[in-house]
Protein: DoxX family protein
Organism: Streptomyces oryzae
Amino acid sequence: MRITVWIISALLALVFLAAGGLKIVGSAADLEAMGEGIPTALFRVAGVAEVLGALGLILPAATRVLPRLTPLAASGLTLTMVGATVANLAIGAYAVVPQTLLFGALSAFVAWARFGTCAIDPRPQATLPLS
């Protein structure tokens, strides 16, 4: 199960890093064409959330430094995908809805696993000698 969670986390991180990065660096004209009335600033905010979430899926768990941030990042990405699903329904982009639902469900699975049975223990604190 732990290997499955790591694989899903890595794949989600790649997807969210790419999607978020394109929203951050994409031109305003491209974002406006993609959004059909959704403000460009909202795309930029979503892009930042996706990039930070992608980093949060991997780095805290891999380094074991504040690993409790990993399920929080996965939860945040789940909420981001709920918002993306609502936005896609609002603009009539029904073809994209299954994709956002899938990524949301996978993010929810990672959050559930990292909060529960596949939680990562923090790195032990190093103790300094007193002499």
